[in-house]
Amino acid sequence: MEPETKHWHTVIIGGGQAGLSTGYFLKRMNKDFIILDENMRIGDSWRKRWDSLKLFTPSQHDGLPGMPFPKLKGSFPGKDEMADYLERYVMEFSLPVQLNVKVNHLSSLNSHYEIETSKQKLISYNVVIATGTNPFPKIPAISSDLNPGIFQIHSSRYSKPETLPPGDVLVVGAATSGIEIALEVSKTHKTYISGKPTFHIPDNVIKYGGELYWWFIRNIITVRTPIGRKAKKSIIHGGSPLIRVSSRDLEVAGIKCLPRVTGTENGFPKFEDKSVIKVSSVVWATGYKPDFSWIGMNATDETGWPLSNRGISPVSKGLYFIGMPFLFGLTSGLVGGVGRDAAYISRHILQSNPGLSI
Asked: What are the tens digits of pLDDT across the range 165-180?
């Protein structure tokens, strides 16, 4: 027998910070909803990151709505601390979460949505997609041309330097994650880094002008302002600014900076300046790519990212996205900034069908 189809007012797909923030507001509005997450525990998407990872924003800006992050102001939480915080958040507000549930397909039918999961089918009037920005690692095609003897790993699977074999290491990608990994690996391996570092926000700005800086990126760097729209284009195509680390740190650590990788020669990485180096390992800190192919609607643009107006999909009524960079502003993709978008989307859900029940 097929399992019974369950009806909900709203289904949130993804139990990370974006999905939980949305759940917080929907619960305050007394809406009937469920949060689906494919992990075994809330926070597992953080626990799976590399061991020494710390958030790029200080603790006072790492809390979700209704619950400040419990760490000294000015400190940077580790990835396991964030994972545990998210678990406590679910318990604190008794958010309804179903774990180990993978959504296989989403389709629109008349006035509702059908969500096919690994366990059952759900029907809902509203769907909030909060699956995050990094479902799949983005690895350049040239990786397949490298010598089979070169150990390759994406930054999402890297955990610590000891897991890399002996020999020289190339880190491809000079955004914050790539630089942090390169600095850590350089303590045990000769390390190179490929790519052009993005703009560095001086440490004093974060340390001494942190509140003013946060106010600026939260309220000014948004899609509503000319400077915000310009910053969006720059960041989407060029990467986010460096925080806590800089190209100067690479120099101090003795890490040689190389231009962009363009191909291979005799199985080894080749760069824009035609140089070639022999390495034993390559760490691809090249970001992620979206995958919304499980959505049975044309809900994305030509780049694969969702079409939306501040998280509200123009494709189908009741379809929402949250947790994406520059959904509204620079902080939309940050733990401490997602709450604003969650509140906005939740209000829209309430206003669109205030008396609707299933």
From this structure: 999 999 999 888 899 9
